[in-house]
């Protein structure tokens, strides 16, 4: 199996805009059986992104409900009407900078890049990797986490690409055979072109890993819950960020602990120093092992796809 040069991968999807040129709310328009936003999330997750942030703004409540239950973190750009996409990008990048080795960035209206393209970017040894098809740059862009502080603090004119150029670091332009990196959905005509392109695409593998004993006890939602508790020190805040109820979160934790016969959280009662919840050493170990196990399974499945379906699909 191919080992990734960047071991922990995050992703930022910016979906705060008002879709004014489209005349409809782009993230929730369908491409096939799923929406534009759902398609991007599925591709990033399949490619190995462990922490996915969606930055919302316009129509935020509806979009967050639409994507709830997918193990995502939602952050809001409350000034979406007066700020540009780079402002939203900074919100997501700043959140992820200490949580992963590298992160992928894409606006929500470029949904048709492939899982293979994302894996190719991840497997580079570059601090900045930009996919190129037909001599044009596209999305997503891979950014090493150690560059994020400089990007977030950049105050020059222009967007993310201008900020990247100002870093004066080596930028890898990665050739890919994937026109999906270029197709956006700014206008109704663009959206129709997306649909036409989608209908010509190959099938893809989608894998969800659940660990079970007498009952299922560990899946991607449980992993995200633990990761957010580790970050925030609060079950309540973690549940809110995942758009699940507090009782649902605790039910997941209790089932995990009962099936593994181990304590994954330590609970500290409130007081002068405040209360909270933190992962135990066993909780940390289980979370790390699950993420690596899923990454290895997905790598193997991708490596075997063509042998079984290459000629048919």
Give the helix/strand layout:
Elements: E1 9-15, E2 30-31, E3 34-35, H1 36-47, E4 51-56, H2 60-66, E5 73-76, H3 85-96, E6 102-107, H4 115-122, E7 128-133, E8 136-137, E9 141-144, H5 148-152, H6 160-166, E10 171-175, H7 188-198, E11 211-212, E12 216-218, H8 220-232, H9 235-242, H10 246-260, E13 265-268, E14 276-279, H11 281-309
Parallel strand pairs: 1-4, 1-6, 4-5, 7-10
Antiparallel strand pairs: 2-3, 6-9, 7-8, 7-9, 11-12, 13-14
Helix pairs in contact: 1-4, 8-9, 8-11, 9-10
Keywords:
alpha/beta, two-stranded antiparallel ribbon, 18% strand, eight-stranded mixed β-sheet, 41% helix, 14 strands
Shape estimate: globular
Query: Structural class of the helices, strands and pairings?
Result: alpha/beta
Order of helices and strands: EEEHEHEHEHEEEHHEHEEHHHEEH
Largest sheet: 8 strands, mixed
Helical proportion, percent range: 40-55%
Question: Termini distance?
Answer: 23 Å
Number of helices: 11
Q: Which ranges are low-confidence, i.e. pLDDT below 50, for 5 or more consecutive residues?
A: none
Number of strands: 14
What's the overall average pLDDT, rounded?
A: 86
Strand proportion, as a percent range, falls in 15-25%
Our Rg estimate from Cα atoms comes to 20 Å
